[in-house]
Design goal:
The chain is an alpha+beta fold. It has twelve helices and eleven strands. It has a six-stranded antiparallel β-sheet, sandwiched between helices. Strands 8-9-7-10-11 form a five-stranded mixed β-sheet, with helices on both faces. β5 and β6 form a beta hairpin. This is Diguanylate cyclase with GAF sensor. GO terms for molecular function: diguanylate cyclase activity. InterPro entries: Diguanylate_Cyclase, GAF, GAF-like_dom_sf, GGDEF_dom, Nucleotide_cyclase, Rev_trsase/Diguanyl_cyclase.
Length: 367
Amino acid sequence: MADQASVRLRALTDLARALARVHGFGQVITVAAEESRKALDARVVSLSEYVRATGQLRVLINHGDLAPFEERFPEEEWYAPSDFPRIVSEEYPRPWTLRSDDADADPRRTASLRSRRRHSALISPIFFAGQVWGELYAARAADQEPYTDADLDFAGTLAALVSAGLAQADRQEYLERLAYTDELTGLANRRAIEVGLDEAMELHRLTDLPVALIICDVNGLKRVNDTSGHDSGDAVLEQLAGHLSSVAGKVNGALAARIGGDEFCVLVVGQPWGTVTQLAEDLAARAAKLEDIDGAAVGYAATDGPTGAVADRDTLFRLADAAQYEAKREGIQRPVAATARHLLQVDEAAADGSAASRDRRRIRRGR
């Protein structure tokens, strides 16, 4: 009988060969799940992607002996950051194991194992482009030997091969998604937030569902760039992006984005004003703890906020931006909510802009 080292080496070879034969993103995910299940002698394997823009983990495939409520390719199986704390709290998390009878483990995760009639699990982060891309999850039943720390290095190697498959795949779907993703931080970009705002405001018009926007601007980033270099400045932006992702992950219907330079935002749909205020306060508090900068100026506005009804995307954005600018100008570390005073400023600026536009048209016409 072949020893364990030979068996695992063959399993790694099989996975590498199988991934080399496929090209599409969906094929890579499917093959990775199927081969990983065999390699890890698991009853079920799941592959999930960490979506930084929403701060949540999205399951892409479940393969093996599934629970009655599980789907092979789930459309809406998401998990909040509290369900996978190591993935979001550590820069380079290591693989780890979990048992359903572990009294010291997170009770939510052990309960999740028991509800699926699984006894032990092994979780390995998948890295891609220098960031945590997602996780490889494998689970065994009670009639199998539980996973131990001796399996961790092997799982990490499997995850690395999956990452290589993702890098080599011709993923049109993934490439299209990149058009809406900020390259540095992995958050949504300005294009994505504009599309999201348009859709959210249309939904608000049809259903009166509240829409809110939180904007934050880093204080002191120029000093970091000038004294320590742009690599240090980029590191600050990545750290702040991680906090935005965590804030967005606290509620459903939130999207975190970098909208340019050192300016970020969180679009929140379907949450009351009080919840939006809590999110803005959490973001400001997190930014204040970052080293090398002076926190962030945070402003926010909503369709159901103190300004009264807000009917269009541009007004909502300008209100949140005006509140953020006040926090920046006054050196306020806490978030500033848009009020009727900011609405007046926005209306006056819009009127001035319209007058200037009319003047330019008159000049062009020779009047």
